[in-house]
């Protein structure tokens, strides 16, 4: 596997959204944020149970391989900056539990697509999309470049 700093190359839509990661607690797969088991993690767990994507199976497989899948969970119930209409969860990165290194974005994207897991876009593409959104939403003549 190619290793890179994938977390710096993918982008969270909200930029401030706590990113849930799966772990085992008393034999049960749970989702937590850096703050531990929080409302965000519990909302993510509920979403995973009814989602049309195999998040739990994917998470179990990659935990067994020694990697932590890091997801972004967006929900109308957990709005921080952006307003969401629906719940969604996307893979941001796969991080090695021992070394802290990330699988490259390109390989992470292939892994996620093969497993039918939504994955976040590259940072450069997201910046371009946000810039275009800003330009079309606002008067582009007022931007001081």
Written description of the protein model:
The chain has helices at residues 39-50, 55-64, 105-114, 123-137, and strands at residues 3-4, 21-25, 28-32, 67-74, 88-96, 102-103. Strands 1-6 form a two-stranded antiparallel ribbon. It is an alpha+beta fold. It is globular and about 35 Å long. The protein has one domain: DNA ligase/mRNA capping enzyme (D-amino Acid Aminotransferase, Chain A, domain 1), CATH 3.30.470. Strand 2 (21-25) and strand 3 (28-32) form a beta hairpin.
Output the keywords.
single chain, 145 residues, alpha+beta, D-amino Acid Aminotransferase, Chain A, domain 1, two-stranded antiparallel sheet, globular, disordered N terminus, disordered C terminus
What is the number of domains? 1
Instruction: Please work out how many helical segments DSSP would assign.
Output: 4
Order of helices and strands: EEEHHEEEHH
Distance between the termini: 41 Å
CATH homologous superfamily placement? DNA ligase/mRNA capping enzyme
Tertiary shape: globular
Q: Numbering strands along the chain, what is their spatial order in the largest sheet?
A: 1-6
* Overall average pLDDT: 74
Question: Can you summarize the main beta sheet?
Answer: 2 strands, antiparallel
Strand-residue fraction?
15-25%
Percent helix, as a range, is 25-40%
Alpha-beta content class: alpha+beta
CATH architecture classification: 2-Layer Sandwich
The CATH class: Alpha Beta
Kindly identify the CATH topology.
Answer: D-amino Acid Aminotransferase, Chain A, domain 1
Calculate Rg over CA atoms: 16 Å
Number of strands: 6
């Amino acid at each position: 596997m190619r290793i890179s700093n994938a977390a710096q190359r993918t982008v969270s839509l909200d930029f401030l959204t706590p990113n849930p990661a799966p772990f085992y607690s008393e034999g049960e797969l749970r989702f937590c944020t850096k703050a531990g088991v929080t409302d965000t993690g519990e909302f993510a767990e509920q979403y995973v149970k009814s989602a049309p994507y195999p998040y739990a199976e994917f998470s179990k497989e990659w935990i067994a391989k020694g990697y932590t899948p890091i997801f972004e969970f967006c929900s109308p119930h957990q709005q921080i900056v952006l307003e969401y209409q629906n719940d969604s969860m996307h893979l941001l990165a796969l991080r090695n539990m021992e070394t802290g290194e990330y699988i490259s974005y390109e390989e992470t994207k292939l892994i996620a697509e093969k497993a039918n897991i939504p994955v976040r876009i590259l940072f450069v593409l997201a910046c371009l999309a946000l810039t275009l959104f800003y330009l079309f939403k606002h008067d582009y003549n007022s931007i001081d470049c």
